[in-house]
Amino acid sequence: MHAEIKAPDGSGRINFARLASMREAGLIVIILALCIAMSFASPHFLTWGNFRAMLMSFSIEGIVVVGMTILLIVGGIDLSVGSVVCFSMVVSGALFLAGLDPWTASLIGIGVSALIGAAMGFFVTIVGLNHFITSLAAMVIVRGLCLVITKGTPLSLFTLPPAFKAIGQGSFHGLPYVIIIFVVVVAIFDFLLRRATAFRKVFYTGSNEKAAQFSGIKTKQVKFWVTVLCSTLAGLAGVIYMARFGAATPTFGAGMELNIIAAAVIGGASLNGGSGTIFGAILGMALLSVVTSSLILLDVSVYWQDMIKGCILLAAVSIDHFLHRKKS
């Protein structure tokens, strides 16, 4: 692949690294400023217990953010991630209650999540629908399947073996396994996205699909497999949630897509495709977690919390739109 993907103004190669590093540095400054301000506003903020709670709260969602970020870079979006997370929990939990061991049941749960991604990828790349409509339909269909399987009743999984529960509840020398899994997933995909040639095709496809096709990239295959990857990571998150809570609720994950998309966009992933980093998205997730923790410690109503998160998302999308328009 020797063709160079040009910037829309013809000025040369798009400088993804410089744009990403600026956004990431800005996010780090904002997060540090919030932490300093909250250290004065609440004596409970700068405690290990609070930071551990924040890490636990966004570590599992952070796994889903990884998949969403890569999908946004390729030019797609997935509104069904919350439903897929729930579906993975419900399928795995139902199979466990039917007599299957939890490890096999979990692998099947992740597998069916990947199949959902494959189905969406088919409708996007073969039928020709866009990601938004396809994932919106999948969100409703998959949520309906969760309700059908459970008959609207939460599945109690208190009989899960301790070895399996340790995934979501255990720790290694005081560090929860959930955080360890999260760090490993982030490290692997951040490295691949920055260094692997195969993953650079994601950027080229999202930046200029026609130019990518002319350079020999099979863009439909790239979109298909990235869609599958996003759903697979959502399935993995569902299994971890099941181990953590010891239950599978058919309404779990409703609205999760807002946090996921907000984190990725705040971190620099463009809704127009072609830009974004895993590290930036995780910083976006960290920012939302710090904001949520701050609002809780300041005793702000949960209803205001959702409104504030929505405003943050709107601001991030507006900035992204402005930058994209200026670049064009």
Summarize the structure.
The chain has a domain at 46-253. It is built from 13 helices and four strands. It has helices at residues 16-41, 48-73, 81-97, 102-127, 131-150, 162-169, 177-195, 197-207, 209-214, 219-245, 256-266, 278-297, 302-327; strands at residues 155-156, 171-172, 175-176, 247-248.
Short descriptors:
two-stranded antiparallel sheet, 328 residues, mainly alpha, 74% helix, two-stranded antiparallel ribbon, 13 helices, disordered N terminus
Give a structural overview.
The chain is an all-alpha fold and 328 residues long. The protein has a domain at 46-253. Helices cover 74% and strands 2% of the residues. The strands form two sheets. The protein has a two-stranded antiparallel sheet with strand order 1-4. α3 (81-97) runs parallel beside α5. The two termini are 25 Å apart. Mean pLDDT is 88; it is low at 1-14.
Secondary-structure class: mainly alpha
Estimated radius of gyration = 20 Å
Q: How many DSSP helices?
A: 13
* Average predicted confidence as pLDDT: 88
What form results from the Cα inertia axes?
globular
Topology:
Layout: H1 16-41, H2 48-73, H3 81-97, H4 102-127, H5 131-150, E1 155-156, H6 162-169, E2 171-172, E3 175-176, H7 177-195, H8 197-207, H9 209-214, H10 219-245, E4 247-248, H11 256-266, H12 278-297, H13 302-327
Antiparallel strand pairs: 1-4, 2-3
Helix pairs in contact: 1-12, 2-7, 2-8, 2-10, 2-11, 2-12, 3-4, 3-5, 3-10, 4-5, 4-10, 6-10, 7-8, 11-12, 11-13
